[in-house]
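Listing S7. Sequence submitted for prediction.
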Amino acid sequence: MKKLLLLVLLTGFLASCGAPKNNTSGIEESSSYRYDPVPAASNIADYALSFEGTKYKYGGTTKRGMDCSGLIYVSFQKENIQLPRTSGAMSKEGRRLRVNEINVGDLLFFQTNKTRRVINHVGLVVQLAPGEVSFIHSTTSSGVIVSSLNNPYWNKAFVMARRVF
């Protein structure tokens, strides 16, 4: 019984700030690794990476704790780019990208709630390689981490990418 309760609680934590949606984008088609990002994009990505290991805190925007949109918000703020504070509102900013246009500094948006079809998670592209998109984000289970869009969970939950500068 204790194991079942723990499994239910863990599932709930993993679903927040971070549910899979049908993805037809095919990340393996991404080839934008050959493009150099603009300096502001590299600066934003580098600053976001300085928060790696920070614990998750709903509504947080500091090294003491942050959520997914807080990480993005403060990283762009460092380059004097103002974004809304929530992932849903951020998903309306900038220009929508095709997968093969994704580059460092772009935002990736996800639906990780199985019961509601809304954008509820955001990550920032920090590195590209042939067929590989790495992004930084904050998860309830692990805090600020770098993940791959090739991870089946994130690939299925991926909705769109946007460029805001």
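Caption to Listing S7: primary sequence and predicted structure tokens for the chain studied. Confidence is low (pLDDT under 50) at residues 1-16, 18-33. Strands lie at 61-62, 65-66, 95-97, 107-110, 121-129, 132-139, 143-148, 158-163.
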